[in-house]
Amino acid sequence: MPGHQPTAPLAELRSTGFASLLLRGILAVLLGVIMLIAPGLSVGYIAVFLVVVIGLWLILDGIASCLLASRERKHDRRGWGWTLAGGAVAILIGCLALIFPLSTALAGGTLVLWFLAAGLILRGALELGDRRLGGRGTAIGIVNILFGFFIAVMLLLNPAAVLLAMVWVAAVYGIVFGVLSIVVAFRVRDPRR
């Protein structure tokens, strides 16, 4: 209703929603711009941070597994050797991740893109065979297969370029998402809506 003042809970919800959406939007735009300006550097820092956190977790988890194996051995539990071996492998992988964080991050990113390519090809093949989709399934299936093969060929020819392109896509998404969040924030704040 025009001229109607919102109730206190609604006004509080509008205020909270506005602040949340505005903050999310600003952060998304900033991250997107940073990724566009320095794609390798920004993604490198994020990837290395994640690898270090995962590496530390693997080491701690491996130590805990080794301690558990020691207790299992003391109590003559069968299979303690497998627990010990799993702990040792976790510690080794965690140490390698900490020693070579950038290489681990690049290998992980490349592996994800290979899974994406394989997934697109497989999904496309399944969509070609799905009679329920009719002609739409054929077109969708062909597009998925073509993009899957395109990503695979690009990964073979120049994996760094594919990783960089994915960063640009994420950067543009962040900026578009951020701008839309900011617009929605101001719409939520408007008491006339």
TrEMBL record:
InterPro entries linked to this entry: Acid_resist_chaperone_HdeD, DUF308_memb
GO-annotated cellular components: plasma membrane
Spans through the membrane: 21-38, 44-68, 80-100, 106-126, 138-157, 163-186
Transmembrane helix as UniProt keyword: yes
Pfam families, per database record: DUF308
Keyword flag Transmembrane: yes
Keywords, in A-Z order: Membrane, Transmembrane, Transmembrane helix
Domain of life: Bacteria
PANTHER family in alphabetical order: PROTEIN HDED (PTHR34989:SF1)
Protein name: HdeD family acid-resistance protein
Lineage, broadest ranks: Bacteria, Bacillati, Actinomycetota, Actinomycetes, Mycobacteriales
